[in-house]
Amino acid sequence: MWRPKLIGSNDQFGGLQCILVDQKTDAIQASVKEIDYDFAAPKIKAGSIYEITHFHTGCNKPSHKVVPHVAQLFFNARTTFKELPTIHPHIPRHRFYLVDYTQLSTRIDKIDILTDVFGHITGIQPLEQKMVGNERLEDKCEVCIENIRKENVRITLWGDTAETFDSQNNV
Q1: Residue span of the structural domain in which 36 resides
Q2: Mean pLDDT of 121-129
Q3: Average pLDDT in the 99-124 region?
Q4: Which domain of life, per UniProt (predicted)?
Q5: Rounded CA gap, 9 and 16, in Å?
Q6: Neighbouring C-beta atoms of residue 77, cutoff 10 Å
Q7: Which of 19, 87, 100, 162 could pair with 139 as two cysteines, CB 3.0-4.6 Å apart?
């Protein structure tokens, strides 16, 4: 989930954007207009599983597309989110469409899905298990990325993402 800022403004936002992922790792983008933000945003918690009703659908606009799904969901003040118990099948908390750097040039001038270059990996901490909330052990892996300004960012991967992260193919 993220709140995009309006272009040319430092303190005005353009609603809320979400990526919803199902147990098959299929993803769809959802949007909330700024006028409905105060009503819809408190009902949504990242990582939770919901039954969602009273929403609209439309075409995913190529200029804002962050997942390859052709449709997009639109939530408003009437949208209801019924949180479901976590006994359902495991649903990943992420969905990234990563492109190998050597293939990045093939994405130039294509608008079918937004492409963002964050930086390159400079270091990877080995996989370790960490206690989460004094109740369960989760796999954890930290990855250091350097951007074009030579600034370092540390990203923590958890659970299945950490476990399946292939450091040999991602360096």
Answers
A1: 16-83
A2: 88
A3: 70
A4: Eukaryota
A5: 16
A6: 14
A7: 162
Whether the Cβ atoms of residue 139 and residue 159 lie closer than 8 Å to each other: yes
Would you say residue 32 has pLDDT above 50?
yes
User: 33 in a domain, yes or no?
Assistant: yes
Specify the pairing of strand 27-32 against strand 71-75.
parallel
Of residues 109 and 142, which shows the higher confidence score? 142
How many residues does the structure list for the chain?
171
Residues 6+ apart with CB under 8 A from 59: 70, 71, 72
Q: Residue 22 is inside which H or E element, if any?
A: none
> How does strand 80-83 pair with strand 120-124?
unpaired
Mean pLDDT of 98-120: 66
CA distance 146 to 119: 5
Q: CA-to-CA distance for 164 and 98, rounded, in angstroms?
A: 14
The CATH code of the domain that includes 166 is: 2.40.50.140
Q: Is residue 107 part of a domain?
A: no
Number of domains in the chain: 2
Answer yes or no: is pLDDT of 133 > 80.
Answer: no
Q: Is the pTM of this model over 0.90?
A: no
* Integer Cα distance of 78 and 103 in angstroms: 43
Cβ contact 156:144 at 8 Å: no
Report the C-alpha gap between 108 and 23 in whole angstroms. Answer: 31
* Arithmetic mean of pLDDT, 16-36: 89
